[in-house]
Amino acid sequence: MPDSKMFPPRREFLGGLAATAAAIGLGEFMAQAQAAEPATGSEFQSWLDGIPGKHRQVFDAPAPNSGFALIWSHVFLMTGAQAYGVPESNLGVVIVLRHSAIPLAFQDGVWDKYHLGEFFKIDDPATKAPAMRNPFAHIKPGDMPLPEAALEKLIARGVRVGACAMAIHYQSMRVAQIAGVPHEAVKKEWLAGLIPGIQVVPSGVLAVNGAQSKGCTYCFAG
Hints:
Structural class: alpha/beta
Oligomer: single chain
Strand content: 5-15%
Number of helices: 10
Shape: globular
Largest sheet: 5 strands, parallel
Helix content: 40-55%
Strand order of the largest sheet: 4-3-2-1-5
Order of helices and strands: HHHEHEHHHEHHEHE
Number of strands: 5
């Protein structure tokens, strides 16, 4: 199991990320990711087909952005029901977590073991230090200005959350290389550590496109 001694300080880590990206090359990374991911077409289509409601919105989250994709999702559900005079079930919300927003998809154990707060520059609201838990799910008092925007609460309300497979592959590879541990082991733990109800999608950009093809209005949330 990786421990804190295996992970470099933030400045060294960021330098390592740039070096890693330059070393592997985008083309090689794309080939690795394509080879590593199983075919998910029918599952992805079923996920898109399950978007509920008449009034639909997709929030595109390429960065954590203090959890605003979650906050705006709650606001859409709350104000949409009032403004359109419909039950919440007539509103459809999709959140796409991609690129550096991918840690929002993971349970606390992944954050703690792999120091995701340090890697992605996300601080714990209580300690102001790099978060060792997910401060956007199963939240503590003071974590978010709107407690109803906690990720698992939104999922329970029917919000569909997609996590980019390409981002999981790439980000877990970068973490594994810097920590000096096998990439596939890290990736496997990340996938097993997803918050229940989150769907792995082939890519975040594809999920945004797919949601729009199902009538979702686009909103950038990063």
